[in-house]
Design a protein that fits this description.
The complex is a heterodimer of chains A (248) and B (89).
Chain A lengths: L1 E6 L11 H5 L3 H4 L2 E5 L8 H10 L7 E4 L10 H10 L2 E3 L3 E7 L2 E7 L6 E2 L2 E2 L6 H25 L4 E5 L23 H10 L3 E4 L8 E3 L5 E4 L2 H4 L4 E5 L2 H8 L1
Parallel strand pairs in A: 1-2, 2-3, 3-4, 6-9, 9-10, 10-12
Antiparallel strand pairs in A: 1-13, 5-6, 7-8, 11-12
Helix pairs in contact in A: 3-4, 5-6
Chain B lengths: L8 H14 L9 E5 L4 E5 L1 E2 L2 H14 L4 E4 L2 E2 L8 E4 L1
Parallel strand pairs in B: 2-4, 3-5
Antiparallel strand pairs in B: 1-2
Helix pairs in contact in B: 1-2
Classes of the chains: A alpha/beta (248), B alpha/beta (89).
């Protein structure tokens, strides 16, 4: 089994000293890897990123993250990534990584994602440059997620997609319908269903719902801290093949 | 533009949400803002990261909406580690 701890939207600000660390006191015993689903910072400043690293100092299990929209706000995302990486956090951006736990390899493919809405009520690549740029960003994120998933699948027993934006509407339930196009896109789900994955975790939708599924049947979990009501959620991702081997 | 009657509350809600996103003290998009009557008051609901941010958001709103009572019903996110483990076969 592989125990995956996941949380999104911790929104570390300069007033957060000790707040996140307190919630992670026992994560090393409770999980094998910690996923951070974007919005690690409140304003995306280097100072906040340095504080995130301080808050994670006692976490000894691998930490894998994607950035969220807040992490881009101050146009310091490059420095934010550099500081997080220096602190031992693997930051995915249309890329993947693997974690070995008890002989099983878990592949994690991650990217921020973007909005656009969902099939039947979504924006199109049409009209003004700004609108086309909006959808082009989502298309590019979906394509990079697809390629990262395909790439890591060959090396992994189980595969997790890590996003900030949502690939499905189900985990947005509770948010106002009017803002769904700013919370996610079905293009992300299509990429996941085409490439294959065992689990998707995302954040961003603070008033959304925890559980959903892609049209292709992949489980989706909204782990925004405001939704889960805890420091993080733990998923026990069992490997059927490994369990078959243990029975034999 | 000449001064007219007070703006309808719909615009005030928009101005408050803009201020909450822009002000360094708040930087928050996840606050629900409602303007309720008959006495003018602004009601804030949602979940934020720290108690300091909760307080700061109340201050920002009071500055943007002078003359309104601010009812700060914001909650602070839980960092309790006791959540159930979900088994995924």
């Amino acid at each position: 089994m592989t125990r995956i701890a996941a949380v999104g939207d911790i929104h570390v600000g300069l007033d957060s000293v000790g707040h996140v660390a307190h919630g992670l006191e026992h994560v090393n015993e409770r999980a094998d890897v910690l996923l951070l689903a974007g919005d690690l910072t409140r304003c995306g400043t280097a100072a906040e990123a340095a504080l995130v690293v301080d808050e994670l100092a006692a976490v000894t299990i691998p930490v894998v993250a994607v950035l969220g929209n807040h992490d881009f706000h101050s146009d310091e995302a490059g420095e934010v990534v550099r500081l997080l990486a220096g602190g031992g956090v693997t930051v995915l951006d249309g890329t993947s990584t693997t974690v070995e736990v008890g002989g099983a390899v878990v592949g994690i493919a991650g990217t921020k994602g973007f909005g656009g809405g969902f099939a039947g009520a979504c924006a199109s690549y049409f009209g003004e440059r700004a609108m086309k740029a909006f959808i082009a960003e989502t298309r590019a994120e979906a394509a990079r997620l697809h390629d990262a998933l395909v790439g890591v699948s060959a090396q992994a027993d189980r595969v997790v997609a890590l996003l900030h934006y949502s690939p499905v509407e189900a985990t947005l339930r509770g948010e106002r319908l009017e803002i769904y196009p700013f919370l996610g896109s079905h293009l992300l789900a299509e990429a996941i269903d085409t490439a294959g994955a065992d689990l998707v975790v995302h954040g961003h939708a603070h008033k959304g719902s925890e559980r959903g599924v892609t049209p292709g049947g992949v489980r989706v979990r909204n782990v925004a801290q405001q939704v889960i009501g805890h420091a993080y959620r733990v998923f026990d991702l069992r490997d059927p093949a490994a369990e078959d081997r243990s029975v034999a | 533009m000449s001064a007219g009657p007070p703006l309808p509350p719909d615009y005030l809600i928009g101005h408050i949400q803009d201020a909450l996103a822009a002000d360094d003290r708040s930087r928050e998009l996840g606050v629900d803002v409602a303007v309720a009557g008959p006495d003018p008051r602004v009601v804030l609901t949602g979940t934020v990261s720290t108690d300091a941010q909760r307080q700061a958001i109340g201050e920002v709103v009071a500055e943007v909406a002078p003359g309104y009572d601010v009812v700060n019903e914001l909650a602070v996110v839980s960092t309790d580690e006791g959540g159930a483990v979900e088994e995924l076969a």
